[in-house]
Design brief:
Helix content: 40-55%
Radius of gyration: 18 Å
Distance between the termini: 19 Å
Length: 186
């Protein structure tokens, strides 16, 4: 897989992510929901001040550390993609890491720049725009250690997420399930 194809893939993923986020941010009120497939799939505009599932790291210093960590992680992932290309790694592995890279960059754009662009927070302190809400099934007796996967109404996978989060999640599952041989050979 060529660097040009990887760059095109990443740019297209970033454009899709940012278009959806900007449309939601500029045309919906925070907390507003639009039903797409009944109760099962909704657009629900939420601003996430922290990491995955809304987890936060100790106030403003935690937010700064999280933003800086994301930037460093993207640099490392970008470097690793370059190495994978040089080593002629399988296209599936390169695409998987490109999805992770695009998802991470998409969320960095929000947290680093959206606060400044929309006059809500200083550089590196913005919130990530989330909007996809799935009601998969109701989980009545969830173990306490898995409670972060359930919303206040008891629905499994209650967190609201975005396209960038989807890119990362799909890529991690794909790499674990279908590309594990590659990692065993390292």
């Amino acid at each position: 897989m060529t660097r040009k194809k990887i760059a095109i893939l990443i740019v297209l993923l970033l454009i899709a992510d940012q278009i959806v986020k900007l449309l939601v941010k500029t045309s919906m009120f925070e907390g507003e929901s639009i039903r797409l497939l009944g109760d099962w799939l909704q657009l629900r505009y939420v601003e996430n001040p922290g990491a995955a599932f809304g987890m936060q790291l100790g106030g403003s210093y935690g937010k700064l550390i999280l933003s800086l960590f994301r930037i460093v992680a993207v640099g490392v992932i970008g470097w690793y993609i370059g190495r994978l290309v040089k080593r002629n790694a399988p296209a599936g592995v390169i695409v998987g890491f490109s999805l992770i890279f695009a998802g991470a960059v998409g969320n960095i754009i929000d947290s680093v720049f959206y606060g400044v662009i929309f006059g809500e927070a200083p550089l590196l302190y913005g919130h990530v725009v989330d909007m996809i809400y799935l009601h998969l099934f109701r989980w009545e007796s969830v173990p306490r250690w898995l409670s972060f996967l359930v919303d206040g109404e008891g629905y499994f996978f209650g967190p609201v997420f975005n396209l960038a989060d989807s890119y990362i999640s799909v890529a991690v599952v794909y790499l674990a399930l279908f590309q594990h041989k590659f990692f065993k050979e390292l």
